[in-house]
Amino acid sequence: xxxxxALYIDAGDVVLRKARDDDRGSIIEHVADPDVRAHxxxxxxxxxxxxxxxxxxxxxxxxxxxxxxxxxxxxxxFLGTVSLTRRGVHHPGHLGPGEELELAYTLDRAAWGRxxxxxxxxxxxxxxxxxxxxxxxIVVTQSANTRSLNLARRLGFVPAMTFEEYGEExxxxxxxxxxxxxxxxx
Length: 186
Fold this sequence. Notes:
It is a single chain. It is built from 4 helices and 8 strands, in the order E-E-H-H-E-E-E-H-E-H-E-E. The protein is of the alpha+beta class. The protein has a domain of 125 residues: 3-Layer(aba) Sandwich (Aminopeptidase), CATH 3.40.630. An 8-stranded mixed β-sheet has the order 1-2-3-4-5-6-8-7, sandwiched between helices. Strand 3 and strand 4 form a beta hairpin. The chain is globular. The protein starts with 8 loop residues before the first strand and ends in a 10-residue tail after the last strand.
């Protein structure tokens, strides 16, 4: 199944790029942060994350096509992650029998409330809409995660169903990929 092939995307105040060795410490802190991971199953143990990055390499964090670090455009500092990848069939929450494109995003607490997640998500969706055939794109988030649900709605996603995963109610929202194509002037 086709996924996004871009390695770098300009997203306004941020850029989407692949992970590098100098992101190691920021990635560890990001996935160990209880606030960042509050609706994602909780923080991951720092030692385990460090070991995984050391064994697989930091670049493995964004090896999958469509997976990116969100970095500050002026400083190139790590701010979070965004991905547009296929939702595995082993997960509950699908529109049909296949693997839909799934948008996912996380942002460091210091970057919350500045519109950066919106910029990153909109940019990855625009890039994918220009490259891939039209199809549904989904966002899955804990129903209790109102900030993420509000961002999904702002992007144009519409809640379609709820289901349980990881012991919590999840909301699946959907949008058409080509809805993110830039408007054409007539």
